[in-house]
Amino acid sequence: MTGYDEDKRKLILSDKVQEDEGETVMAVAAGEGVLPEDDFMGVPIDELEKAKAGALVGYMAMDMCKPPVEATWGLYNDRKIDDAWVADLIKSFKHRRSNCLESDSVEVAIRPEWLKNRDQIRARIDGLKIHEVAEMEFTDEGKKAISPDNIIMLGGNHRREALRRLMEELRTTLQRDEKAIKDKGTDIPIPESNADEARIKKEREKVKWAGHWSIKIYDRGEWNVPDDE
To answer: Where are the domains of the chain?
Structure first.
């Protein structure tokens, strides 16, 4: 088994089963036929799932392209970025971005009391648009608490990179189109001017929300990451 295959196998066996490409876990495995195991690092999977369910707080949103600087990626999901995987994600995101689904939300571990807008946490988000879901904000005390890398991101490495690259593409397109319209000058038919204005408005809206994704918040409890981790 190659190192890349082993990385994918580890993903399948992870307790959180985060689906970085927005597809099913078996699609990530690409037909490897990895059999599910009864435990993860010696802990029974059903116990892990029960503990996760009890720690679930709800759903909010995060700008994955401009996340809080304290967000820590790679601590528990340290797979290397696969460029081919990211490229496939970008293609799929251009067709449809499942950025507001409970099943595709990026899992985040924090303390709920750190949140300034805790009352805006949603129990369900399926059927909503990402702009209808509140972006998590922190209280002053919460900001102090998260400052030593205390927002633990439990997935989303590849999605974050794909969204970052997609954002760059969208911004490039927007800048190109804005310049083209400016170069036309003001002496153009009103219908054409209105169409241009509507198109630019739509492109700006895409850029505004392109990096946002729903997050699934878990109460991390009172614990600290050991220094040797």
So the answer is: 3-29+44-219
